[in-house]
Design goal:
6-stranded antiparallel sheet; 14 strands
């Protein structure tokens, strides 16, 4: 399991949404890294073709998280599958920066009859953040990320809190030392080796999804005014 800081909240909580009579949710526990084999522009969208070990288990119209972005499988051929990212997704995430050969963190939707770990992850990336610092911590690595400080977004619950949850490139992590527009996460060696954190350095752009619980609380407070 790709966890890099202990979560002490109740892991039985989860979020799902209904789509074509199926329930889809993610936990932020990355299964593996898929490799980009081709990228094709289709007007304002892009078709991304990737390969991974479970391609043969996928089905057309199945939802898979890619760097934290929920995308639909539209084509399967051999050990490769293709997903489409629309313009809005490209504007909001780092998928538009992908190049052939890059690695993407992938997670299939959770099975409802299994243990639930991680935290509530929708697969709806809120914005991107940039890595501004890295430091060694006796074997683990602390990454510091900076994101846009927007007061209106903060009012709506788009922020981080100490020991709260955040999703970075699809990985469920615990927040350390948050400020108004930065936060740290601690990455253990196993996570570094088995997710694309191994390719993240100062200046890298990542996808972040803030904790949905904070958004609900902010919304309830707004409605109570």
């Amino acid at each position: 399991m790709f966890r890099s800081f202990h979560h002490n909240h109740d892991t039985t909580h989860f979020f799902f949404y209904k789509r074509k009579q199926s329930f889809i949710m993610f936990s932020g526990i990355v299964e593996e890294m898929a490799q980009v084999t081709s990228i094709r522009q289709d007007k304002e969208n892009i078709d991304i073709t990737l390969t991974c070990s479970f391609t043969h288990e996928l089905k057309i119209d199945q939802s898979v998280s890619h760097n934290g972005v929920c995308l639909t499988v539209v084509h399967i051929e051999g050990d490769e599958y293709t997903v489409t990212a629309m313009k809005e997704t490209l504007d909001r995430t780092n998928l538009g920066l992908l190049q052939v050969g890059n690695h993407v963190n992938v997670e299939r939707s959770m099975l409802m009859n299994g243990r639930l770990d991680g935290h509530i992850v929708q697969g709806h990336v809120d914005e991107t953040a940039r890595c501004i610092a890295m430091k060694d911590a006796d074997g683990s690595t602390y990454f510091t990320f900076e994101y846009k400080n927007d007061p209106e977004m903060v009012r709506r619950g788009y922020f981080t809190v100490d020991k709260g949850s955040v999703t970075v490139n699809g990985v469920s992590l615990t927040v350390c030392n948050p400020t108004e527009n930065t936060f740290e996460v601690a990455i253990i060696p196993y996570t570094m080796a088995n997710t694309n954190f191994c390719e993240i350095g100062v200046g890298s752009v990542v996808n972040i999804e803030f904790d949905i619980l904070g958004k609900y609380i902010a919304r309830l407070q707004d409605l109570a005014r």
